TrEMBL record:
Keywords per UniProt: Hydrolase, Signal
Name by which UniProt lists this protein: Acid phosphatase
Signal peptide (UniProt feature, chain positions): 1-46
Protein source organism: Klebsormidium nitens
Highest taxon, organism lineage: Eukaryota
Pfam families: Phosphoesterase
Length: 334
């Protein structure tokens, strides 16, 4: 719209009328182009411009801490989880290294980048988020007790004692903040959110396609002593996971959920850890007649944390990071 003083200034002359006509034309053209681009833009949240997966439309990772395969299998809930009709035990699944951090880094980076400690690192390299964003696959990293707002400190929450040993959130279990191109991007690091945001995303039916969930230091079984241990972690897991498995806003017949541990306990050889796939996609997974016995019906293929990016890359045809993800084995599905 032209303001009246402009009309007044130009109104009397032929040149003035031309100026007004030209301005009107530019305004109309601008509005037209804008409305075309609005029509063309697909709505990522509505899934219109999101590639549908070859086998699944959602992959969820939930990671507990520090237990040998045998210790985890001795836990009633973890054994029963793997024995569900819509689940499959991966009986030869391995962590990558000790201590914790490189295992998490490897799951989204396809490499440990030589990291052998739990200290803060800034990794200037591509990662799974680049591949997901490149294909408009929605994702969020849910970290229990994470303060949000791109927080990159070492720990938060819990008791400020023993140099962070009793914190609830610790940075070494959050691989996302260690990649410069995630932490350094406002839109990306806003997708690292406090864990309880998953409940509101379920309520609003906006759970992303890739969900990376890290329980806090008590829920993940890390902080032992003081009455906390892996069995208490699985009490938490049962209360957290079972209702979600029944909720179609989280789990449907195109959903796969991986429950695993970052690394074995100190004593574990070969870094052999528990891993189970569960979810609607596995609804009628196999012909196993002994479904009550997870070991009989297990997938005994050799897998590692690098199988996580590999499975996601294959499903959405994302290519690869060109690291260990490239030649890892994808999980057999369904
Ligand atoms: C993905 O699948 C949904 C549901 O079947 C469909 O509405 C949507 O158009 C598909 N998206 C693409 C990009 O094919
Ligand atoms: C991702 O979404 C944008 C619109 O937001 C669209 O222009 C682009 O083509 C999409 N990319 C792919 C790979 O579908
Ligand atoms: C956290 O971010 C600040 C600002 O970007 C940076 O100076 C600092 O080195 C980062 N700290 C860690 C531990 O990454
Ligand atoms: C989930 O659904 C099953 C089958 O309907 C039911 O037996 C079970 O109690 C439900 N679990 C929860 C936690 O709601
Ligand atoms: C299912 O079990 C039957 C009977 O044991 C067997 O003949 C068949 O080959 C199995 N099918 C698959 C796909 O494993
Ligand atoms: C896997 O691929 C990486 C990167 O291409 C390569 O360096 C490594 O040697 C390969 N490992 C095996 C076991 O083939």
């Amino acid at each position: 719209m032209l303001r009246s003083e402009e009309v007044f200034a130009h109104g009397g002359t032929r040149l003035g009328r031309l100026v007004i006509l030209r301005r009107r034309w530019l305004l109309w053209r601008h509005a037209f182009v804008l409305s075309l681009s609005l029509l063309a833009a697909c709505r990522i949240r509505a899934g219109e411009c999101t590639a549908n997966g070859t086998q699944f439309d959602r992959f969820v990772v939930v990671i507990l801490e520090n237990a040998d395969f045998e210790v985890a299998m001795a836990d009633d809930y973890l054994a029963s989880l793997a024995a569900r009709p819509d689940a499959r035990l991966l009986s030869d699944y391995h962590g990558l290294a000790h201590p914790s951090q490189p295992n998490y880094i490897g799951q989204i980076g396809g490499d440990t980048f030589g990291i052998t400690d739990d200290d803060p690192h800034e990794i200037d390299a591509t990662n799974l988020v680049d591949l997901l964003d490149g294909a408009n696959i929605t994702w969020k990293a849910y970290m229990e007790d994470y303060p949000g707002d791109c927080f990159n400190g070492s720990n938060a929450g819990g008791l400020p004692l023993f140099n962070g040993a009793l914190s609830l959130y610790v940075r070494q279990h959050n691989p996302f903040v260690s990649f410069s191109n995630i932490l350094g991007s406002a839109s990306r690091c806003q997708k690292i959110v406090p864990g309880n945001e998953l409940d509101s995303d379920i309520s609003s039916k906006s759970v992303p396609q890739f969900v990376y969930f890290v329980p806090n230091q008590i829920h993940n079984g890390h902080t032992t002593g003081f009455g906390f241990n892996v069995f208490q972690a699985t009490d938490w897991l049962q209360g957290w996971l079972d209702p979600k498995l029944n909720d179609s806003a989280f789990n449907n017949d195109r959903t796969v959920i991986l429950v695993t541990f970052d690394e074995s306990g100190v004593s574990g050889s070969g870094n052999h850890v528990y891993a189970a796939l569960v979810g609607g996609l596995l609804g009628s997974p196999s012909n196993c007649s002994a479904k009550g016995d997870p070991l009989t019906c297990a997938d005994g293929s050799y897998y590692t944390h690098y199988s996580v990016p590999k499975t996601i890359e294959d499903n959405w045809k994302l290519g690869s990071l060109g690291r260990n993800d490239q030649n890892a084995s994808a999980f057999k599905l369904p």
